[in-house]
Fold these 3 entries.
Entry 1:
Amino acid sequence: MAQATFTHTGEQVQSYKLISGRSIPALGLGTWRAASHATNSVFTSILEAGYRHIDTAWEYGVQEEVGHALKAAMHAGIERRDLFVTSKLWCTELEPERVRSALSNTLQELQLDYLDLYLIHWPFRLKDGASRPPKATDMLEFDMEGVWREMEKLVKDGVVRDIGVCNFTLNKLNKLLGFAQTMPSVCQMEMHPGWRNDKMLEACKKNGIHVTAYSPLGSSEGGRDLIHDPVVERIARKVNKSPGQVLVKWALKRGTSVIPKSSNPNRIKENIQVFGWDMPHEDFQALCSIPNQGRVLDGEELFVNKEEGPFRSVAQLWDNEV
């Protein structure tokens, strides 16, 4: 269910009600590959553009920089309760005994007392020092139920408000739902007109799980730069918006929150200006009909080792759900 709130700049920002009863802002700033720009990007997004949702992860290597920005924003008058901060549990920490210490490290780096959302980053457990991509001997058994029980305890202890998953397949989501006592509030996944991920979206909706879309603009590095897609460009000209705004609006119209990443201050401000206008239905449908569906960020670089790995192909990595 979508709700509307307003930032101090007067920009209308939707939020979605989670299964827990809490709300997640519909638009956030992604910090993957933000590197040295993370502090300035996060501070600009909050203080100048009105963002309240910041997405990060231990694996991104920028949590300390994000923490500096959050502290500065709160020092400038932003209330902690008005921010929504997401981080993620990395593959090497996916054993029950390491969940709480991983969270403690994340909270220390972010200079926070609690997280609004904590996600399992990828559903694979790696040993410390694993090569990238991993060899078969680098992959350890993942006790999903045991890890989830520890995450549920974090919620009960108040150090995490909501828990969820990222980069899950239908197969793995169904496994989790079979034993979860606290339902995952959010499933974060790659999603854009070039990879609609319809089956996962429908499964999440059926189970009351909110979806956050990452890489909403595609990826020039991954060979699918939707900013310059002819259909996107045509619609952008028609509605007098930027291609990026059109792609973000498409994600919102599907009922998902969305976390575009940028270190460009003007782009950061532009991306949130997507709530005071609508996209005609025929244009939304045109974006839903873009052919050649496929993941851009398919995990191959991270996990697929064709000679020595536990995953010899992208299809195997994703349980053949391609």
Entry 2:
Amino acid sequence: MGPAELVQKISISAESPRGSESGGAALAGADGAAGGSWRHKCAAYVLALRPWSFSASLTPVALGSALAYRAEGALDPGLLLGSAVTVLAVHGAGNLVNTYYDFSKGIDHKKSDDRTLVDQILEPQDVVRFGVFLYTVGCVCAAGLYAVSTLKLEHLALIYFGGLSSSFLYTGGIGFKYVALGDVVILITFGPLAVEFAHAVQVGYLSLTPLLYAVPLALSTEAILHSNNTRDMESDRQAGIVTLAILIGPTFSYMLYTVLLFLPYLIFCVLATRYTISMALPLLTIPMAFSLERQFRSQNFNKIPQRTAKLNLLLGLFYVFGITLAPAGALPKL
């Protein structure tokens, strides 16, 4: 076969339908792989945010807004949405900071709950960029809230940047988590601070009342963190960090978890018997609390932070409904 015949045969083969189909299939396969890779990347970013923990930021916003509605008789849905997005953005960024520093310090490993960086699902620079993006979104939303709310700039900045700083310093910078102060940071940030933020944006001023009503929800939120730290007690000790669970040991950790679970119900019982029966709504979640207590006592920590977060969400929603349904003037200072 001469060179001219060989070239002609190759040309005919390339122009044949079978050759076109093969090329098209290869191209479609490449496009499918690219699409699958993009979907996998998006799923990895969502996973890194730990969305199961977002009840800790959404319920305080709902509570603060419900308190504002009960106090003022009106609620701005736009401010509620803006507050929720702002708090969620800062919370998500804080989770990414936690992922980055836990990996950098060698705390996360193959058996950790968060293996985003350990399994190389994302690269460290991806987590950093995503965290910066979310902090930026939070700042833009906070600026938007200032533009439409009557709250003074200095008051909004005090609460917002207090929450932003806490979310970063929990593991970044000082690293409160690593010196047994993480529980204090979470108790304040995802309790009184977030509730006060949502309330102040709605009513336009600061008040002590939201801080008091935030206590039951803050205790429930702290239970999420404490269950997580108790589960990770051994790995944290090996990594050389100190948490409250390590300081007090397994027995007292169980006792503290039990208090964090059931003390909110005692507060709700007092509110329901002395003020309005609608505050008994959160008591519907007590069976879940007893189930979690038994699981914790048996030292079966599988998915217990996620289950505690689910309880936190339901308890918070019933708490919000209870306040919203309460007759005007029935609750103290509202």
Entry 3:
Amino acid sequence: MERSAIFYFHYLLLSLVIAAANNINTTDQQALLALKARITSDPSNLLAKNWTSNTAVCSWIGITCDVSTHRVTALNISDFGLTGTISSQLGNLSSLQTLDLSHHRFSGTIPSSIFSNSTLKILILGDNQLSGSFPSFVISNMSSIRAIDCNYNSLSGELPANIFSYLPFLKSLALSANNFHGQIPSTLSNCKQLQMLSLSINDFTGAIPKEIGNLTKLKELYLGYNKLHGEIPQELGNLAELEWLSLPRSFLTGTIPSSIFNLSSLLELDFSNNSLTGSFRDDLCQRIPLLQGFYMTNNHFTGSIPRNLWQCKDLSVVSLSLNQLTRTIPRDIGNLTVSRNCILASTT
């Protein structure tokens, strides 16, 4: 009798576990089918043929599941040429860690439910037609997020300054080519792990926050093609690991801070199409020996072309036109063995 009771208890427990797993799988399935229902064009019929209710979710194209729980942990259906809107039920994928819906024609707003997912680490929605503002009231639940890519959409409004206090592990923030306006939040400095910040091709105004200089792990900084003003902050010289510094067409004035020339890891320096003044250092390549691209076109620089420019052995692009530089070209510039583009014309 006792053995029968124990057997029955184990059977009941196993049944409950199986039922719970089925319910969870059903939740994920319903969330994904809700997204499929929002697709108005699927040129290759990949979802139409593969995402069906009579097949296991974990076998669907673009889906990755946890081997133990069978919960959906990744949804990657980038570059399928889909048209439609994003379903709010994706927020029900409560184990989701990666969401990649990039390179489509998704329109409408980004559902706030996505930003309430506490497990999400990577969010990639770039190259779509998404609109609306960047949510501020729920992103505080996304402390686990590592990367946000919403490049090339039609998002608008100001970036909420408060959200950057809740993203301690954020490593990459890519919001270029949208319609954001207002000032670049100085609170970005709270994202101490940030390695890439791309806010170019928007309508940001005001000065570049000097607090960005506190992001000492930053490797890439793209702020060009905005409506900024003022000088380049001296504090950017604190970014010892910086490799790409791009600030073109940003209405910047003043001289290049001397601290910038201490960034020995720089590969590309682009200050073109501003109103910068001053002259170039002759020891440029001794200080930035790994330089590959040097873009200074259309400013108000004076003086001469750096005499030792040839010492940058990896330099492939030099663009100094439309300045007030002297016409004398250093004869040693011919020693640039990998230079592909050397634009020195229109100097005086």
